[in-house]
Design goal:
alpha+beta, 6 helices, disordered C terminus, about 35% strand, 14 strands, 5-stranded mixed barrel, about 20% helix
Length: about 220
């Protein structure tokens, strides 16, 4: 599953799509990888709020600490029974909608990987089912739930984000654990709904999805 996504839309467009009011004073990141900020919508006091959070929960094992390593980041939730997630996934307070317009997977041969971008046709802004928490040591962080990929994603990966339609938002934000399980194991968005953009841009190039360069000037 990719560890790169972006939101090539303005704050006003994002707020309108998710019903966020008033407009927050946050910037739209050019792109998000684990350890960097992304945009997240969550609910508090009956209102939807938009906030910048760091993608990835910190992970520091005893072995990592013994070797003097820094904490890593886990930004993907695949196994709901993992002790790292089992307490959080049952509580709707920690649900969120991760804002994106595109996600990318590395494509090609090792050492020469390029960016292949995925988006949803006729859905300029996408929500990815996520979990977020304000950690005392790290501040606000989030992770996204993954599922088996549709036929448009391979061979770049066999997993993909759990994408939501607007009519799914309330069920994700307020549903019980059975709803969480249902979203992860339901059929993914149909391959025919996906737009696939292969590029010659190096995986580490920071090049945006094709056709969004001009839009970036308006962010």
């Amino acid at each position: 599953m990719s560890r790169l996504h972006c939101a090539r839309a303005s704050i006003a467009e994002i707020a309108a799509h998710f019903g966020v009011n008033p407009l927050p004073s946050v910037a739209v990141p050019e792109e998000t990888v684990e350890g960097l900020p992304g945009l997240v919508v969550f609910e508090k006091g009956g209102r939807r709020l938009l906030r910048s959070m760091t993608w990835g929960f910190p992970r520091l094992t005893k072995d990592m600490r013994a070797r003097g390593e820094e904490a890593g980041r886990i930004g993907l939730v695949a196994d709901l029974t993992n002790p790292m997630w089992e307490e959080m996934v049952v509580d709707p307070r920690y649900r969120c909608l991760i804002v994106l317009t595109h996600f990318a997977n590395p494509d090609g041969v090792p050492g020469a990987k390029t960016r292949t971008w995925f988006s949803v046709k006729r859905q300029p802004i996408i929500a990815w089912a996520g979990f977020c928490r304000n950690l005392l040591s790290e501040g606000p962080v989030y992770a996204g739930m993954t599922m088996e990929a549709n036929a448009a994603i391979p061979p770049t990966n066999d997993r993909m984000p759990v994408l939501l339609d607007p009519h799914d938002y309330d069920a994700w934000l307020h549903g019980g654990i059975q709803d969480v399980i249902r979203f992860q194991f339901r059929p993914p968005f149909a391959a025919e709904r996906m737009k696939v953009q292969q590029t010659e841009d190096s995986w580490r190039s920071k090049a945006p999805p094709p056709g969004t360069q001009a839009q970036a000037l308006l962010l």
